[in-house]
Hints:
Blueprint: H1 29-42, E1 43-44, H2 54-58, E2 63-68, H3 74-82, E3 86-91, H4 95-108, E4 113-116, H5 120-127, E5 133-139, H6 157-166, E6 167-177, H7 180-192, E7 196-198, H8 216-223, E8 229-235
Parallel strand pairs: 1-4, 2-3, 2-5, 3-4, 5-6
Antiparallel strand pairs: 6-8, 7-8
Protein name: tRNA (guanine-N(7)-)-methyltransferase
Binding site for S-adenosyl-L-methionine: 67, 92, 119, 142
Pfam family, one: Methyltransf_4
Amino acid sequence: xxxxxxxxxxxxxxxxxxxxxxxxxxxxxxxxxxxxxxxxxxxxxxxxxxxxxxxxxxxxxxxxxxxxxxxxxxxxxxxxxxxxxxxxxxxxxxxxxxxxxxxxxxxxxxxxxxxxxxxxxxxxxxxxxxxxxxxxxxxxxxxxxxxxxxxxxxxxxxxxxxxxxxxxxxxxxxxxxxxxxxxxxxxxxxxxxxxxxxxxxxxxxxxxxxxxxxxxxxxxxxxxxxxxxxxxxxxxx
Length: 237
């Protein structure tokens, strides 16, 4: 799809700036199994004009957590394993990560996760009811470090406003990054976002909570001397 007109009648609508780039990659047998065999059971396909009925999708009413951009799914898998009484909705656009998580969820017999292979902005705007989510997680998003690419960062004021709409009063927005300039930028955005309060007791960041599993990527980074910054904001009523 391009921004050029394809006919003399109507131009195609312009797309918003994406915070991700879809890259082609080879799929393993397990990842393909996840997409083809497990997605019909644990995957979600958004229908135009319809909000997701989470109670029906999970078959119960429970605490709800949304993780945006779960990558290969290691953190989300571990959280689901440790918290069987919590329901998780994972959002990711890249097929290998979606397939891998679904395959591992199925092999582990976990039923408290649903996966949506979709642009997170569309899910926030169209899929989720207001005040329906207890926690939103955004772990290690692409920092787009070059200044000319900052417009691609997912953390922007309009994005924060979308998060606030779906959070329950008192619900939390939890971000983590290993890029300090991006952490500082997140703080600046959230200072301007109405209806949020920083939960840090000192400074802008919180210590890594025990409930956020440490990934192999993060452990390797720590060995190399890389820092990680966690930010947790509470939605005020």
